[in-house]
Every structure is written in C-alpha cells, then in structure tokens.
Amino acid sequence: MRHLLKNGLPVNIHNRHRALATGRYCLGAYKRAQTTFAAPKPVVLPPPQSVNIQIRDAAYVDAEDIGRINVEAWQATYRGIMPDPVLKLVTQDRFELRWEDLLIEDPEPGSFTLIAEDQEEGPVGFVRGGLGESKNQPKHADDLEWEIFAINVAPRFQRFSIGRELMLEAFARILLYGGNSCYSWVLKDNSRARFFFKNLDAMLVDQGLEKLGRAKLPKQAYGWYDLTELSITDEIAERLPYWDGEDSEETELLAMVPYEEGALEEPKTQNALIAAE
C-alpha cells in the first residue's frame, strides 16, 4: 500500500481520502440541520382594511401593550438610522418596565399618556406629553413649555391618520391644562416624523445632537407657538368641550385650577371611525 510522508510521518492515502469524505459529509449534515431547525420567521400580518379607534387615557395595566407598540415602531422606523447596538437594546422587557415606571398610579401633575385603541385589535398607538424638562428645552425657543415626549403607532396601523388623531388629542389636553404651546424632538434622518409634524403646522425651532451609545445623531425640534392660531385649531376645538375657539371664561378658569388638586375632570374619550387615506 502506498504511503506519503507528511511532517515526517507516513500517511495512508486511502485513510486520508476516507477522512476527507467524512469531513464533507459532516459539513453537509451540519448545513442541512441549520436549514431544517432554523427559527421560523415571524408572521407579518397585512394592514387592516379599516379601523375603529377610541382614544383614552392610559393606565398602569397598559404598560405591556405600550411597550410592544414602542418596540415595533422603533424597530421599523430606526433601522438604518440608529446604530445596531442601540436597536439590540430595544426589547419588550426593557420597554415594558420603562412604561410601568411612567404609568405609576400617581403620575406627575400635568403629564398625560393617551392610547389609541382599535375596537378589534386593542391598543395600536400612543402619545405621551407633559411639561418639558429644562435639559430638553429648545435653546432658541425657551418660551415653549410643554413637550410631546413620544408618539408611536404600530406599523400595521400606520397611514390610518391615527397619529394625527393622537396629536390633536394631545394638543387639546395641553390647552385643558392651561398650556398654549409645545415642542417635540425628532432625529433629523427620520424624514417621516419631520413631514408628519410639518403637516400639523409645526415650525423648525432648534437643532442639536442626540447621544445614543457612542454615536451622536443630529436631531431637530419642532414647535407650536400658539395652539389657538393654527390651521388645525378647529379640529383641536372639537376635542375640547370647554373651549369655543376663543379665550372663553371657562378656559380661563380651568387654566387657573391646578391639576394636582383633582378639580379637573378627565376629558371624555373620543370615538372616531378612521378610514384609510
């Protein structure tokens, strides 16, 4: 039987061929196993034909649904905008815990979280607002006191004007609490969000950088200086039963009563049948 020398040692050619064949078989079996036992792809449901939306105040028990919507919206919106290591931290558990902390039974006076709830599917979007923190205040628009901290709609339910309905409700709530102006920060590369705010009469008021991990991403602040002087003011008025479009006596009285004393009743939920655009 013929032999070769490899590293000074005899090697049987037949044994060598047998070893190579075995190796190729094992590699093929491994690849087949990877294909056979790969995790199934998540089922992507098509958008609904229509939605029947009710907007209400969020409660502590809504933390799980809001966390889910938050994760779905971020993963769909910020892929390619935020660094991948940051998006890997966007998980259901993390966001649910965050919203549990925000939706405690005794929330900050004046802050609010509103949920858009579909009659068939349940919660599909949310908006959160309140008095802005000094560190977030636009430097070139420091007279804008209220802030829209977050607004998200589940990807399947986008393009049904649900985000618009949530923003109009948020504007009405700010007016009800005695405010008249607000702002919101968005990442500059999030063109859909910038277009969304501009369609709601927002103005670009400031720019800055958002630190996410080791990355610094450009961001922009959009503001509304007077919610009673917008092209959408009439739509806001429809959601504020105490306001007739002017600085009425009722509105002035409401603005003088601190919310934490419980003198203000929670605004009634709004029902709207929103058809696809």
If you had to describe this structure to a student in words, what would you say it looks like?
The chain folds into 2 domains: 3-36, no CATH class; 51-274, Aminopeptidase. The strands form 2 sheets. Strands 8-9-7-6-5-4-3-10 form an 8-stranded mixed beta sheet. A two-stranded antiparallel ribbon has the order 1-2. It is of the alpha+beta class and 277 residues long. The longest helix is centred in the first third of the chain and has 24 residues, at 13-36. Helix 2 packs across helix 4 (92-102). It has helices at 13-36, 63-77, 84-88, 92-102, 162-176, 191-198, 233-237, 249-256; strands spanning 3-6, 9-12, 51-57, 112-118, 122-131, 146-153, 182-187, 203-212, 215-224, 270-274. The protein is built from 8 helices and 10 strands. Residues 1-6, 36-40 and 247-277 have low confidence and may be disordered. The termini are far apart.
How much helicity do the residues have?
Answer: 25-40%
**β-strand number:** 10
**Secondary-structure arrangement, i.e. CATH architecture of the largest domain:** 3-Layer(aba) Sandwich
Distance between the amino and carboxyl termini: 81 Å
Shape category: globular
CATH names the topology of the largest domain as: Aminopeptidase
Low-pLDDT stretches are 1-6, 36-40, 247-277
Mind telling me the CATH class of the largest domain? Alpha Beta
Sheet of most strands: 8 strands, mixed
Strands of the biggest beta sheet: in what spatial order?
8-9-7-6-5-4-3-10
Mean pLDDT: 78
Considering the protein shown, what is the CATH homologous superfamily of the largest domain?
Answer: Gcn5-related N-acetyltransferase (GNAT)
Radius of gyration: 27 Å
